[in-house]
Amino acid sequence: MTMLAKKVGGPVALAVVTAVSGWVIGRGVEAGGKDVFRKAKAAARKRNAPCSAKGQVFDVVSHGEDGKGLALRAGDQYRVMECDGEAILVEVLGGANNPYFTSARFLASVSGFPTEEANGE
């Protein structure tokens, strides 16, 4: 402690350096913590946003396969059962192996499913 006090110019200077360093570190941790909290809160709000397409029936206008077992043909219809970010749970009306998980991007490519870009998000 004595050696450190001598390096900074005495015990008073050591006390000032210690206090200022503690304040700077504390403010940095506080600002970083607030930023992390804000980002986590925004991510949770987006993830828990209500599914605007839930319950809606969409008409398929072009053929497509999502690569996970869902094949839609022009003229098919599907009902959106649930949304979770990019993952969409759908029921193909008249389909035998319902329900299917697929992506919003795939559904938008074969039907009039609304995308985030169209909603301005």
Short descriptors:
121 residues; alpha+beta; disordered C terminus; two-stranded antiparallel sheet; single chain; rod-shaped; 4-stranded antiparallel sheet; 6 strands
Residue share in helices? 40-55%
Order of helices and strands: HHEEEEEEHH
- How many strands? 6
Strand order of the largest sheet: 1-4-5-6
Q: Helical segment tally?
A: 4
Oligomer: single chain
Structural class: alpha+beta
Unreliable segments of 5+ consecutive residues = 117-121
Mean pLDDT: 84
Rg of Cα set: 28 Å
Q: Given the C-alpha coordinates, what overall shape results?
A: rod-shaped
Intertermini distance: 56 Å
Main sheet properties:
4 strands, antiparallel
Beta content: 15-25%
Question: What's this model, at a glance?
Answer:
The protein is an alpha+beta fold and 121 residues long. The chain contains four helices and six strands.
Describe the structure.
This protein has helices at residues 2-8, 11-47, 104-110, 116-119; strands spanning 57-59, 64-65, 71-72, 77-84, 87-92, 100-103. It has 121 residues and is α+β, with helices and mostly antiparallel strands. The strands form 2 sheets. A 4-stranded antiparallel beta sheet has the order 1-4-5-6. Strands 2-3 form a two-stranded antiparallel sheet. Helix 1 (2-8) crosses helix 2 (11-47). It is rod-shaped and about 85 Å long.
